[in-house]
Every structure is written in structure tokens, then in C-alpha cells.
Hints:
Blueprint: E1 4-9, H1 13-24, H2 26-33, E2 37-43, E3 58-59, H3 62-67, E4 73-76, H4 82-93, E5 97-100, H5 103-120, E6 124-125, H6 136-143, E7 149-155, H7 158-170, H8 174-183, H9 192-195, H10 198-212, E8 222-223, H11 231-239, E9 242-251, E10 260-267, E11 279-286, E12 290-297, H12 301-318, E13 351-360, H13 366-376, E14 381-386, E15 395-401, E16 404-405, H14 406-418, E17 422-431, H15 434-437
Parallel strand pairs: 1-2, 1-4, 2-3, 4-5, 5-6, 8-10, 10-17
Antiparallel strand pairs: 7-9, 7-11, 9-10, 11-12, 13-15, 13-16, 13-17, 14-15
Helix pairs in contact: 1-12, 4-5, 5-10, 7-8
The structure holds 1,4-dihydronicotinamide adenine dinucleotide (NAI), the ligand N[C@@H](CC=O)C(=O)O and sodium ion.
Organism: Onishia taeanensis
Pathway: Amino-acid biosynthesis; L-methionine biosynthesis via de novo pathway; L-homoserine from L-aspartate: step 3/3; Amino-acid biosynthesis; L-threonine biosynthesis; L-threonine from L-aspartate: step 3/5
Protein name: Homoserine dehydrogenase
Amino acid sequence: MKSVRVGICGLGTVGGGTFNVLMRNADEIARRAGRPIVIEQVAMRRENPDCDTTGVKTTNDVFEVAHNPDVDVLVELIGGYEVARELVLTAIENGKHVVTANKALIAVHGNEIFQAAHEKGVIVAFEAAVAGGIPVIKSLREGLGANRIEWLAGIINGTGNYILTHMRDEGRAFEDVLAEAQALGYAEADPTFDVEGIDAAHKLTILASIAYGVPLQFDKAYTEGISRITFDDVEQADNLGYVIKHLGISKRTEAGFELRVHPALVPKECLLANVSGVKNAIEVMGDAVGPTIYYGAGAGAEPTASAVVADLLDVARDISTEHRYRVPYLAFSGIGESDNDLPILPMEEISTAYYLRLLAVDRPGVLARVATILSEQGISIEAIIQKEAIEGELVPIILLTHRTREKHMNEVIRQLESLADIAGSVTRIRVETLDEDA
Ligand SMILES: NC(=O)C1=CN([C@@H]2O[C@H](COP(=O)(O)OP(=O)(O)OC[C@H]3O[C@@H](n4cnc5c(N)ncnc54)[C@H](O)[C@@H]3O)[C@@H](O)[C@H]2O)C=CC1
Ligand SMILES: N[C@@H](CC=O)C(=O)O
Ligand code: NA
């Protein structure tokens, strides 16, 4: 049986992991694929000390791989938007299949890439792009194919979860834990993508398209990171019975789809509250199957390589299947079309409960004024904690509200921040009781 010849572009964390897994498990992989999967060429800027490339054809020009007639599948692991886009489109133009771990590329340029691949009849596989080694794309696209997906929610950035876990468990500083996640190879080249929620929004965009059969719409995702979470918020959440997690949430409603990434208070007994460190987990609600959950390593060299190589196995098996009989790139057939033309909802229209932390001047009547502002917007309070005042200092007030529309909460915060009794800005963290919503 003819081998499948692979060209790896980028020999960093994921490229190095992919190289090593393909080499180490070559026999096992060949038996599973029904044919050998061999590394034909590697494009890299520098050697990876974890990889022995002796005897492998190398180049420092990734486009050489895209033009190499002996390469059947180009594996894009350089990251970033523009060069990766050009590289992938060149490979497709040359009739090569593509495997990528690049969620930024798929979320932003995916519609164009899938259209080009469709015209050429080639495969573009991207399991590693969402939640690293967890086979969530395959599960959602194929395993849950019978279902109308109602919602999905998850921890889909390993670096962010690693930071929140170590801040909470060890009281360590944000910057210190971030540096550790970078050293472990978890973070993006620009770690603001991790801590400001951009990476999670890329992944959520991809998941939502596969779940609902809508085009990729990264520009409509609401994105908020974890960089403003303080240790005090972590402690207060704990006192109230919650854990702060950075979530990606997408729900189907009658008016449209929610697509939002932000920190959230999650009840301690929820499965997602117990996902620690670099682990990711995604909960998916299907109308037939009910809730399902997918859990595992969301980042790191070999966990991510596991997904890249699984995609290569699919390519090896599907290469001889006629294009129209393959599983569609985003699960639904009809590239760039959707029979579900509901919009992505603006954030003002979403509905959830809230945690608020305000710093108040210790004066009589402050709490009453705060409560009036909330009640005027039709928002009821579930819990209130006022810490003891220390003479001359501001008093932190913590509030948990019942569910309301984001636009009403925006108005509350605007009014609270304009009160003379309230200092600085109000901290708002959304509260998500996912299992209850099910
Ligand atoms: N690190 C992780 O745990 C995960 C990363 N990813 C994605 O995988 C991709 C790669 O990420 P990492 O391996 O972490 O990054 P990395 O920075 O460790 O590796 C990228 C490698 O590509 C090389 N490179 C970049 N441009 C190049 C060019 N024009 N020519 C030749 N080599 C070039 C760099 O020198 C570097 O060695 C990204 O899209 C990332 O978002 C996805 C899942 C997990
Ligand atoms: N930087 C990402 C890598 C995997 O996608 C993360 O931390 O999750
Ligand atoms: Na995955």
C-alpha cells in the first residue's frame, strides 16, 4: 500500500511533538491507517533539541513543502494568520491535503480556506485547533451527528486555566504562573491571546460553526480575558460556593446564537469547576443524547500532537474516498451556506446572573442606594456580603444577582459608577450554572 507522505511546517512545541509521535509510533500508526505515514520533509527555522532529524529532508522555507510534489499532506504548525494562510492556500492550490493546529487561521480565514479546499477536493483537518488533544471536533462533527445541539460551554484555553488554578490553589501571582505556562509550551506566541480570551474565542467560533452549521464568525464573538481577575475575587467566589473559570459559551436561542468568552463563577459542584491546570473540558448538550463532556489536555507538545496525528490517520483513510462522501469540514454540507440563518446575538441580549464587587465609602444608606439602582432595572439580589469597615478605608461590597439581560446590568453598572459613594470601577463577573440551564 502506498505511503502517505507528510511535510511538517514548523518544528516548535507542536511540530516537535508531532515529529516524535510519528517516529515513535510509526508501526502502530501504519497498522491503524492501513498504510505507512512517513515524514517526507520538515521546514524549520532552527533545530528542535527534542527531535532527531538525522536522515530527514529539511528546509528553512515552508513554501518549499507546499510545492514539493513528493508531499501529500502539508502539516501547518507555524501559527499566526497571514503566512499560514498563504501557505495553506498554496498547498491546497497544489492539490495537497492540509492538517493544522492553528485555530486563529481557521476561525478567521476558515471560510475562505474551506471554499478553496472544496474546489480542489482536498481535506483540511484541524482537530488540534480546539482543546488540543481532546477529540472534541470529531465528537461534535461525527459522534453527535444525530443531534440538534442546544448549547456548549467549556474551558478551552489551557494557559488561562493553568493560571487560574495556580492563583487559587497556591495564591501565586498572575505573571509568575503565566511565565511558567509559557516555559511549558502552553501559551501562544503572543500570550495576550491566552489571557485576553482571543484564543478561546477562536476555538469557540470553530465549535459553534460545527455545532449549528453556521459560517465561522469570529468577528461577532464577545471576548473578555482573565487579566483583571484579582485574588480577592477568587476568594470571594470561593466563600460564595463558586470557582472562577474562564469559559467559552455558545447557546442556541430563538433569537440567535450566543457566542461569548469571559470569566465566570461556576458552582463548585459543577464538572467544569473541577477542571484544573492545563486540562480543558467541553460540555455539549444535544437534544437526543443529553449532556456529554469531553475532557483532557488542552495544550502541550504530545497531547496536541495526538490530535494532529489522528487527523493524519483520517487523511490516510479518506484520501481515496471521493470528496463528496467525506465528512464536511464544518460538519454540515453547503460551504458558506446555512439553512440556519439566525444571527450571532449581541452581548447586550444575553441573559445571565452576575457577581459584582464594588468599593464603597463607609456612609449610611449606601447599600440602600445600590439596592434601589438594581431594583429599578428589575434585578433581584440573591446574596450580599459587606466586609467590615476599617476606619477611613473603602468597604468592599459583594453582590450576587438573579438572572437579567446584560443591557440591564450595563445600565446598573453605569449608574453605580456615577454614585459619589462608589469608588473606581465595578467588577462584574458573570455567573454560569450550566447544569441547571440544561
Ligand atoms: N502549544 C500548544 O500547546 C498548542 C498550540 N497550538 C497551535 O499550534 C501552532 C504551533 O504552536 P506552537 O508549536 O506552540 O508554537 P511554537 O512557537 O513552539 O512553534 C512554531 C514553530 O514554527 C516556526 N516557524 C514560524 N514561522 C516559520 C516559517 N515561516 N518558516 C519556518 N518555521 C517557522 C518557529 O520557528 C517555531 O519553531 C499554533 O497555531 C498554535 O496556536 C494548538 C494547540 C496546542
Ligand atoms: N495556548 C493554547 C494552546 C492550545 O490551544 C492554550 O493554552 O490552550
Ligand atoms: Na482537539
